[in-house]
Amino acid sequence: MNNQTVGWNENLGANIRVAYAGQELKNMVSTGLNSGFNIVYNNSIAELSEYLGNQSILTLPDIILVEVDTEGKYISFVQEVKKSFLLNGLIIVLLSSKNDKTLRSKAVELKVHDIYSLPFSLDDLRERLNFLVTFKLIKPKLLELSKEVDTTYKMPLGKRIIDVLISSCMLITLSPLLLLVAIAIRLDSKGPVFYKSKRVGTGYKIFNFYKFRSMRTDADQLLAKLSTENNQYAAEGGANKAAFVKIKNDPRITKLGNFLRNSSLDELPQLFNILVGDMSVVGNRPLPVYEAEMLTSNEWSMRFLGPAGLTGLWQVSKRGKEDMSERERKKLDNFYAQNYSIWLDLRIIIGTVPALFQKEKV
After folding, report:
1. N- or C-end of the chain: fewer Cβ atoms within 10 A?
2. For the whole model, what pTM was predicted?
3. Of residues 92, 61, 303, the one with CA closest to residue 201
4. Could you state, in chain order, the average pLDDT of each consecutive group of 10 residues for the chain (362 residues)?
5. Sheet holding 37-42, edge to edge
6. Domain boundaries, the chain
7. Which residues pair with 311 in a beta bridge?
8. In CATH, which superfamily holds the domain spanning 4-140?
9. DSSP strand E in 142-279: where?
């Protein structure tokens, strides 16, 4: 076995251990990651497997970097790592010398943490690896983190009173409409009336998020492929993965679902989320876990220091517009988290009415 350790600099205060497999990109990677990372190089996946087999829980690497090989050995390697009780918590990042869209779909299917295809920036790779290690350290303490952040954000009493009044009155008033929509969904397609998913709200708090079902029952299975091929935010990201996912002309949506979405009737069950305190009427949209995991570093974590909401600045300003960039959406979320007030909420609520009936199918 040709294991080589390079690039460790104690003065940086970092102790990130990396196990690498491959030869094609080895020299480039060693040049770009020669500080702050303790890298053990292996010439093949077989050598890497043998190396990992000789490690204890105290000597395991933090990250596994694997070059994508033409024979597809990386696939079985990742699958075996995922099955291992000792190794399944390791961060796995794939590197490829070919820019092939199918590789990203495969990476999502394998549930690796990221994939980089040439040409990619070594600075971006370095930043991503540092972030993944940092997030791995805080993820097991997500409950503790949410409690800590909640002490910074406290729902104003006036805002909570308005939320309870609006949500309870609307649920009572709209109960006949809710029943009609539920019956229509039952008649339109097979599957449950409500769609439930895990969302991340204020202070990274995870809760059950409810909507009327507007998609096919296999929608979640199709998301991995569509998020790489038809994501509105993907084009601006280049080789980097976009944090938000928004599918143009989403083929997963049912015929009735198109109407429910364009009229925003699919959002009505979130009135229950507001009533129980998971969300507010106005705030930043609670994100799916896979999106929230990409926004836990630097300035983007600011959006989680404000309330999660049914409607917000994004909905009333640029929702559905083709020129809506990922960065603009993040900035709107951060602005609201820092500047929300009762008066701003009232302006957003008033502006939400014309924004409900959008023509863009996004």
Report:
1. N
2. 0.52
3. 303
4. 41 68 89 81 92 80 91 91 80 89 84 88 84 65 50 76 94 95 89 88 86 74 53 49 54 81 88 93 85 58 81 72 64 82 86 60 42
5. 4-6, 37-42, 16-21, 63-67, 91-96, 114-117
6. 4-140, 152-355
7. 282
8. Response regulator (3.40.50.2300)
9. 194-200, 206-212
